[in-house]
Amino acid sequence: MNDSSKIKRVNGTDESLLIKKAKQGNQQSLSELVNRYSERVYNLALRILRNKEDAEDILQETFLTVLKKLSDFDERSSFFTWIYRIATNASLMKLRRKKITASEYLDHPDFEQSVKDRMLQDWSQSPALGVEDQELKKVLDGAINDLSEMYRTVFILRDIEDVSIKDTSQILDISEENVKIRLRRARLFLRDKLSAYFSERIPS
Amino acid sequence: MKQHQHPEEIMKQICDQMGEDLNAPVCREVAVHLQECPECKFYFDTVKKTVVLCREMENKKSIPPEVRQRLMKLLLLNKDAQ
User: Fold this and answer.
1) Which among B2, B46, B71 has CB closest to A124?
2) What is the rounded average pLDDT of the residues A159-167?
3) Which of A82, A138, A181, B23 falls 20 to 30 Å from B76 in CA-CA distance?
4) Nearest chain B Cα to A190, which residue?
């Protein structure tokens, strides 16, 4: 069961009541909603933007928007999807303002073909392979940072946040098929970055 | 240095599977092929390991208390202004 499903299940029916009360201006309910979702919003923003100050900006921006637009929330989507959409859009806007990430590699028409032609080296069973390795951590962080926003957001939502394909498609307003395509490309991009790193570290 | 030479359809299915839940056995043919083909298995395993490493690195961070404090203060101020 993914995290978004868990939230829906744990919060269950009381979330509707909470939202109803918050819409009526009940401060306690509003605080409860903020407490429920603030950590997830902060982590999402941190993962997309990779900067603590920017993540705090997005956290504040997201909940200011929630306060402003809560009365418009019609519960056609889940509250989780709604707030994640606000946070993701705000993060993307900030990312675009900060830098344009262009990954020609990913957008190259021959990308699919290159998957088949790439050299293979199995480093997955390499001993002592873990993120406690600071050099590896730096490589991973750089690789995620190199992902253009369209791939990075899908990768963060699906593989890191464990959001379902359906919810990811709703949050990003793209088709489920597009979610799968972007996720596949993001994974392969990251895998190739690591392979390049390991090809220097591990003798073939 | 060996090149990947496998049926087009198998590779397409592996690629499709890579966009899905990596633990879900969505395609028996792919699973069988992975068992029989070390090259594809290496490739699949390294993609899977990449995701695992990224998940480990991106572990959940707590909101620093001062950040939470500033958030609540901002929201309360905002409410006061309404």
Assistant:
1) B46
2) 93
3) A82
4) B50
Would you say residue A7 has pLDDT above 60?
A: no
Cα distance from B36 to chain A (closest Cα, Å)? Answer: 16
Exposure on the CB side of residue B35, measured as CA atoms within 13 A: 6
In angstroms, how far is the first alpha carbon of chain B from the final one? 68
Identify the H or E element spanning A49. Answer: helix A27-49
- Asked if residue B21 is part of any domain, the answer here is yes
Q: Domains along chain A?
A: 3-98 (1.10.1740.10), 104-201 (1.10.10.10)
Dihedral (C-alpha) A39, A162, A183, A61: value to the nearest 10 degrees? -20
Interface size A-B, in CB pairs within 8 Å, comes to 122
pTM of this prediction?
0.79
DSSP conformation letters of A83-97: HHHHHHHHHHHHHHH
B26 has a chain A CB within 8 A of its CB: no
Range of the domain at B28: 8-81
Average pLDDT over residues A29-52: 94
Report whether pLDDT(A4) > 70: no
Q: Nearest Cα to A49, choosing from A82, A96, A103? A: A96
Give B53→chain A minimum CA distance, Å.
6
Q: Do B1 and A119 touch (CB under 8 A)?
A: yes
Contact (CB<8Å) B57/A188: no
Q: How far apart are alpha carbons A112 and A127 in whole angstroms? A: 30
Domain count, chain B: 1
Here the tokens at position A62 are 């997201």
CB contact at 8 A, A198 and A126 = yes
pLDDT at A102: 42
Per the CB < 8 A criterion, the answer to whether A187 and B50 are in contact is: yes
